[in-house]
TrEMBL record:
The lineage of its organism: Eukaryota, Metazoa, Porifera, Hexactinellida, Hexasterophora. Pfam families: Tim17. It is a multi-pass membrane protein. One of its GO terms (biological process) is protein import into mitochondrial matrix. One of its GO terms (molecular function) is protein transmembrane transporter activity. The keyword NADP does not apply. Keywords: Membrane, Transmembrane, Transmembrane helix. InterPro entries: Tim23-like. It comes from Oopsacas minuta. This is Mitochondrial import inner membrane translocase subunit tim23-like. GO terms for cellular component: TIM23 mitochondrial import inner membrane translocase complex. The chain crosses the membrane at residues 79-99, 173-191.
Length: 195
């Protein structure tokens, strides 16, 4: 056991000072890239880099982020996105209002612009944040019920979230919101998987 020789070419890093003049050479015999510099005269063997994630236990392959982390991320990103979209719409409305208020003072025009931004931004942010929170809760419930993690959970969660979001309106608005949520998320995952 003590007299076995170790082949340095098999190690991820080996001290090969024979090609110090080369800066970036592809070694086709061993499949490694020699990145040699005066500071670190080593080359890295790219054959040992795994092509997919490695897990210690088989159970780790089916794990995802914890629910509270996903809830915070989905709700926060929905709120910020709604705030940005609503603020953009408010800027457009404010610019239209500025053309109508050309004879007014500068203070009145700035106030009109800020009023239109703050009227639309928080409204869209709150609505999209609540819709995102409904989606996160629905997805968690469906994931627990089906005991499976796939894109179908997200489609069902979007249908349920849209339905729940518009359930205080008419039955027609509720069905349309659920259908629209399912179509949007379904198309997203259809094109996301094809890319």
């Amino acid at each position: 056991m003590g007299s076995e020789e170790i082949d340095l070419a098999e190690l991820p890093f080996s001290n090969d000072n024979s090609s110090l003049h080369d800066t970036n050479v592809l070694d086709s015999t061993r499949g490694s890239i020699n990145m040699v510099s005066p500071i670190m005269p080593y080359h890295f063997n790219t054959n040992i880099i795994p092509s997919k994630p490695e897990y210690i236990f088989q159970l780790d392959t089916s794990r995802s982020r914890p629910f509270t982390l996903r809830l915070t991320y989905i709700t926060g990103s929905g709120y910020i996105t709604g705030l940005a979209l609503g603020g953009s719409w408010g800027i457009v409305e404010g610019c239209i209002a500025l053309f109508r208020l050309q004879d007014a003072s500068r203070k009145v025009r700035i106030t009109a612009m800020l009023n239109s931004i703050t009227r639309r931004g928080p409204l869209f942010g709150n609505n999209l944040g609540i819709l995102s929170m409904y989606f996160a809760f629905s997805e968690q419930i469906i994931r627990r019920f089906r005991n499976n993690q796939d894109n179908l959970n997200k489609v069902f969660a979007a249908i349920f979230a849209g339905t729940l979001w518009r359930c205080t309106k008419s039955l027609r608005a509720t069905v349309i919101a659920g259908f629209f949520g399912g179509i949007v998320v379904g198309c997203y995952h259809l094109f996301d998987d094809s890319i």
